From TrEMBL:
<feature type="domain" description="EVE">
    <location>
        <begin position="2"/>
        <end position="151"/>
    </location>
</feature>
<dbReference type="Pfam" id="PF01878">
    <property type="entry name" value="EVE"/>
</dbReference>
<dbReference type="InterPro" id="IPR047197">
    <property type="entry name" value="THYN1-like_EVE"/>
</dbReference>
<dbReference type="InterPro" id="IPR052181">
    <property type="entry name" value="5hmC_binding"/>
</dbReference>
<dbReference type="InterPro" id="IPR002740">
    <property type="entry name" value="EVE_domain"/>
</dbReference>
<dbReference type="InterPro" id="IPR015947">
    <property type="entry name" value="PUA-like_sf"/>
</dbReference>
<protein>
    <submittedName>
        <fullName>EVE domain-containing protein</fullName>
    </submittedName>
</protein>
<keyword id="KW-0597">Phosphoprotein</keyword>
Length: 155
DNA sequence: GCCAACGTTGGC
DNA sequence: GCCAACGTTGGC
């Protein structure tokens, strides 16, 4: 069982969008970075848990937890010439890009903000907090996972 | 809107 | 294979 952090822009697809989906489940498409792709394709397993992180918004932070309910499979949005995520190099025979399905498991109310994460000494060295980090999918250690869970309101 | 950091592209 | 130019990310 692995832990992850997945970034999304709430103005584009945030926790409220996922919450409104049937079974609170949606595929996580549009990853167009090879390092993130490799995590999705090779390392994410059904049953893994991930923090759902809101970026590029007024209050960046972790909005909740999702479960990987389907392991990596080809991202078909790369094959739609009219779509935002079209990539002519990708084809069903050679997909290049992959996605997983995620289901909303828990909502943090309030979210655990980036400012709070930075303030927690237990999270020193966390990849998310390293400067210049731009990866949209990041592995999270068990220690980091537990430290962040403690920061969330029990609800 | 600004800007630093980073990944990708393409000329050579 | 090098590296400058360019585009994107993402916090502020």
């Amino acid at each position: 069982m692995n832990y992850w952090l997945m970034k999304t822009e709430p103005g584009c697809f945030g926790l409220t969008h996922l919450k409104a989906r049937p079974k609170r489940t949606e595929h996580w498409d549009g990853v167009r970075n090879y390092q993130a792709r490799n995590f999705i394709r090779d390392d994410m397993r059904k049953g893994d848990l991930a923090f759902f992180y809101h970026s590029s918004c007024a209050e960046p932070g972790i909005a909740g937890i999702v479960k990987i309910v389907r392991a990596g499979y080809p991202d078909h949005t790369a094959w739609n010439p009219d779509g935002e995520h079209f990539d002519p190099k990708s084809s069903p025979a050679n997909p290049i890009w992959y996605m997983v399905d995620v289901r909303l498991e828990r909502e943090f109310r309030p979210p655990v903000t980036l400012a709070a994460l930075k303030h927690n000494p237990a999270l020193r060295g966390m990849k998310l907090l390293e400067r210049g980090n731009r990866l949209s999918i990041l592995p999270v250690t068990g220690r980091e996972w537990n430290a962040i869970l403690k920061m969330a309101d029990p609800g």
